[in-house]
Write the structure tokens for this entry.
Amino acid sequence: MSNHNDTSFTDKQLRILTLYSEADTESLAEQLAALLSSGSVWLAGDLGAGKTTLTRYWLQALGHKGAVKSPTYTLVEPYSIEQDNGVTKLVYHTDLYRIQDPEELSLIGFDEYLDDKDALVIIEWPSRADNYLPTPTLFIDMNQSVDESRQVEIRLSKVGEAQGLDLSVLKI
Ligand code: ADP
Ligand code: MG
């Protein structure tokens, strides 16, 4: 987890939450789905931290009904979700863990996903290619504690701040 100079961030910009159970993770995912409808999210954390689980609940909160596979091997799993309001939401769930060379990003059409201003792009293991990715809207860093609980740090980027997003609404 990165170290921040405590007082330099407000509750609007930075939240550190403890998820005691998967139900808490589901609740956070629902709130994130309501908070952010497009843009990209960097989802960092070790293997097993809960990145794919959070994304699965997030997709379900957006109305996705089927399975959510980890994109570890495919690098990207696209979702086209028919929402209750009749709008189709495009979500790209990516996992860059296996990226050997950032060139692979263009092979899987990454730029096109990121250029789609209405799409939501959730990126696991952004550290594998962070110099090649544009600044996301949100940084999320998940860490597993000794027990089943997870510590989650959520931070707005300048992009997120410029959109007027406010993380102080997140409640667990
Ligand atoms: P990652 O994508 O970060 O490698 P996964 O989401 O695939 O991690 O796996 C996380 C595992 O931890 C899953 O088996 C999930 O059921 C379990 N788990 C236990 N508690 C939680 C929690 N609070 N949030 C997310 N996952 C949890
Ligand atoms: Mg994963």
Strands lie at 14-19, 39-44, 76-82, 88-95, 120-124, 138-144, 150-156. The longest helix spans residues 22-35.
